[in-house]
Write a structure and sequence with these properties.
10 helices; elongated; mainly alpha
Length: 215
Amino acid sequence: MTLSDVTKNAMARATLRSNLRHWYNQASDEEIQDGLNWYARANDVASDLACDYFEKREGRYIIKFPPLVTAGVISALSPNNKWKRNLIDARAVLDAVDGNQPSDAVKVCTYNANKLKAFEIARGNQEILTKSPKTYAFAKNVGELDDKFVTIDVWHLRACQTRSNKRKELQSTITPLQYKIIQEETLKVAKEFGIKGYEFQAIVWVAIRNRWNNQ
């Protein structure tokens, strides 16, 4: 099965769901608990970050960067970036936008294009946020704990394609249509286990990453 097959036939989608069930069932009790807690903890981080910035409108102070925005900034800065550094970079971007500083004033540990994307999200350009399915899903999951979306990253794509505990080369990019279908299929499997889609994704992420990294 290739991920392009999911747009063409039901058998490929059934294989995808079977692979996801496999990785969920491979997870230890500790990994399941880690996955169940991850987005709740991340939501706390995004909310705390949002509460550090206020602006005055019509005589009252309101949050300048809502959690959906702070989570979107975190998501934009995430490629090839460790979580702790990601949060440092997110604060640096928000500080810069809050102080009307240019993007050149900030150094981050990801690609320059992603830094510019983070700046645009912080400045309120929602089009930048919504036109990227993964960035938007992460922002909705982390910023609002919205269970209608699933953050489909490279680890989730690997879990969709294989049951192997050993690293192997697999498809790592998808089209918006493929994203939509994989998200729908993931939500179906999560419902089977009685948990939210983002919780299921986090558990699968922990399960496959731990096994591949231990090889």
